[in-house]
Write a structure and sequence with these properties.
With about 40 residues, this protein is mostly helical. The chain is built from two helices and no strands. The N and C termini lie far apart (about 50 Å). Keywords: Membrane, Transmembrane, Transmembrane helix.
């Protein structure tokens, strides 16, 4: 089980190394949408 977790962690870190800009862009959009929803609810 530990071997599987280490392999999946290595794959996830490789995926983030290759696509960190896309992940950052998606996180920025999610943050902007939630901030807009918060402002609209006031």
């Amino acid at each position: 089980m530990m071997h599987v977790l280490q392999g999946s962690y290595r794959g996830l870190s490789l995926l983030l190394d290759l696509n960190w800009d896309r992940a950052f862009f998606a996180a920025a959009i999610a943050a902007a949408l939630s901030a807009g929803a918060f402002v609209a609810s006031l």
